[in-house]
């Protein structure tokens, strides 16, 4: 069985490179991060369950930058996005970011990017 870790990577969470090293040391297979780029300054509808939107949604790091740092800090940990909001991103820039991450995360000819 393959078990991974998922985190809202923010400036007040554990550093993503440190988490990646710790996850790999504990034999986790993968590390996943979400993306939430467009958060309104005010809301008319409540978050699920009537609660306020959790703060970490407003502070997530760019997933491809964060995953590149994680991949650079590890040897075999697979990395991927749990949520990637393609419709909210520029297509060419996203393709370049993903290709760059895939190249930098590769060990030899084997990619560590989760598909």
Our Rg estimate from Cα atoms comes to 15 Å
Helix/strand order, N-terminal first? EHEHEH
Poorly predicted tracts of residues? none
Shape: globular
Q: Let me know the largest β-sheet.
A: 3 strands, parallel
Count of structural domains: 1
Placed side by side, the strands forming the largest sheet appear as 1-2-3
Number of extended strands: 3
Question: Into which percent range does the helicity of residues fall?
Answer: 25-40%
Structural category: alpha/beta
Number of continuous helical runs = 3
Strand content: 5-15%
Mean pLDDT: 88
The separation of the N and C termini measures 17 Å
Note down, in words, how this protein is organized.
This protein is α/β, with parallel strands linked by helices and 115 residues long. The protein has one domain. Helices cover 30% and strands 10% of the residues. The chain has 3 helices and 3 strands; from the N terminus they run βαβαβα. A 3-stranded parallel sheet has the order 1-2-3, with helices on one face. The chain starts with a strand and ends in a 10-residue tail after the last helix.
Short structural description:
With 115 residues, this protein is an alpha/beta fold.
Q: In terms of topology, how is this protein built?
A:
Layout (H helix, E strand, L loop, with lengths): L3 E3 L9 H10 L4 E4 L29 H10 L5 E4 L9 H15 L10
Parallel strand pairs: 1-2, 2-3
Helix pairs in contact: 1-2, 2-3
Keywords, please?
alpha/beta; three-stranded parallel beta sheet; 3 helices; 115 residues; 30% helix; globular
């Amino acid at each position: 069985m393959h078990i991974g870790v998922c985190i809202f990577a923010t400036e007040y969470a554990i550093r993503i490179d440190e988490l990646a090293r710790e996850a790999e040391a504990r034999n986790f297979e993968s590390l996943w991060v979400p993306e939430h780029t467009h958060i309104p300054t005010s809301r008319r509808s409540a978050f699920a369950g009537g609660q306020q939107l959790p703060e970490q949604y407003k502070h997530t790091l760019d997933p491809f930058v964060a995953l590149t740092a994680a991949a650079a800090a590890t040897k075999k940990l697979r990395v991927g996005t749990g949520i990637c909001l393609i419709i909210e991103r520029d297509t060419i820039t996203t393709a370049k970011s993903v290709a760059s991450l895939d190249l930098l995360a590769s060990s030899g000819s084997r990619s560590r990017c989760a598909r």
